[in-house]
Design a protein that fits this description.
globular, 13% strand, ATP-dep_Helicase_C, alpha/beta, ATP-binding, Rossmann fold, hydrolase, 20 strands, helicase, seven-stranded parallel sheet, 26 helices
Length: 664
Amino acid sequence: MTVTEPASQTPVREALADAVATLGGATREGQVLMADAVAQALADEEHLLVEAGTGTGKSLAYLVPSLLHDSRVVVATATLALQHQLVERDLPRLVKAIGSRPGVDASFAVLKGRSNYACLHRVREGAPDDQGTLVDVPLGPMAEKVLELRSWAEKEAENGGSGERDAAPRHTDREWRQVSVNHRDCLGAAKCPFGEECFVEVARDKAQKSHLIVTNHSLLAIDAIEGVPMIPEYDAVVIDEAHELVARVTQAATDELTAAEVERAARRAQKHVEGSEADDLADASDALRAAINETSPGRFVTLPELISDALVLVRDAARSALSALPKPKDSDGADPGFQQAKGGLQEVFTTAERMAAGSEHDVIWLNEGSDRIPPRLCVAPLQVWAQMREKLLREKTVVFASATLKLGGDFGPVAGSLGLKAEERTELGAGAQRTEDVLPWVGLDVGSPFDYGRQGILYVARHLPPPGRDGMGAKTLDEIVDLVDAADGRTLGLFSSRRAAEAAAEVVRQKLPQLTTLAQGDAQLPELAAQFVADPHTVLFGTLSLWQGLDVPGDTCQLVIIDRIPFPRPDDPLMSARQQAADKAGGNGFMQVAATHAALLLAQGAGRLIRTTTDRGVVAVLDARLATARYGGFLKASLPPMWATTDPAIVRQALKRLSESASA
């Protein structure tokens, strides 16, 4: 749909113009249209899905109307990178530009999960071991790093810092756990001797006083959908990177259980339980381990009897151990060992109870273990659209923003996954009334500042054999070498598996030794990305984390190779269950689940190519099914509107011209 140009400037347009002028940017039509739509959606309490292509400036387009809105707005992102960009760059600059305007409440705060902040109690008193005994400093090479993190946390407390993990010295996950706690192990501000200084409490207090709160999808899901209060009261939320929301909500509602976790909970409880209840839980962990060892990995349509019986044993033993915990005396109120034991028992009980129930609304499977990771039972919600509709969309006004919301050329697939119904769609400003049963929503595509038809070529290698399960064939590998050679490097390869990426990298290294070929896993991603940007004669091959998280504008990236259509694996427990459920409900499970999943990833992967108005290049899909299969049209309609060809000679010539131009 389109938005009608108003006769006069609105407060939102005026503030946006001031912000753009102050920040040294240029007015972009799509940004103005989006800001208008966000303001109207917030005012009319209508849900809005807005697709804004890369380069539109969508952050400003939702931040300006959010600051002008008459009540608190929450902004939720999927990635820490975008959250950091909003808090450290966009919002401070925006506040400086328009913060003094009438009607603008420019106060803002950031909220993250508890484990993202250092815990002063753990820093000053030490971390409990498995038996609940406080250990001052871990032994071995970790000790020096933990001491450095403790010193940093003390300086943060002394100087009024945030205590956030992102600001800490470089560290590993294991090292960070020695100076932080999760919500289960936290003593609570009232019981903790350092509660008044607590970084989390300080952050929450600041959020309580702020007009705009920046958080992440997972924390939003815990607050709005699971009903655990994490965010101060709000009526409206802007969800950026909204294409990720379903996956993040699903992740937040997924639980895991291993025999080792049950055993650990039993050990921690033994110090505090006088009877045999903790020992009974240890016995239950042995039963669970034996049941897992006797069971084949994969999804359970019905729980195997061995697994079901073991889960009941674990559930009942954990409940008994919880009941046997003594009521803490006032003097024991700040005992981290007791809190850790209680939290561990509660988590084991809750997860085992959920799994043992075998609800038709859950999917349960056994993940195969490895040398380092034990096998684990997993449970996830079959769908999340109903929870989002009931707990989020009924209660709040929601703006969903992303560069990828239209799949197959339509908002319907994504809207349905979020809990919105096709028949509820309306026009912006139509005055549709929200009721208990009807949640009006608007879909708006504000376009892109890029001329994809002139800037990009979509090449589908129709002549190649269809991809098989045994990896890439010789013809596909030869095609990759020919394309990379024509581009003289400058290639980002997005592969469906680590094995495929490594195989392609090895062949390119052998046949094109003059180029630098990097594969995911050779180093940390930031280091690989920096090397890729620094030298145009570089090739970077990787998997999913490169499909969405890499931003490399300019001549560095003139060729994006996608080895195959990224359908979910046939043995993916959750995706296969969702596909079967859609078929059972009379729908087309393949199109609703597998094709939609593939379309979203394809759009994100292809979006790595054109990042500025001057970028040029080719997206090469080495999967003939995009041109030959019946679902190919749906997938292509989800991609940027690039000029399309299946002729390899045309593509190689275009890449050579681009390479020569970049080198001139």
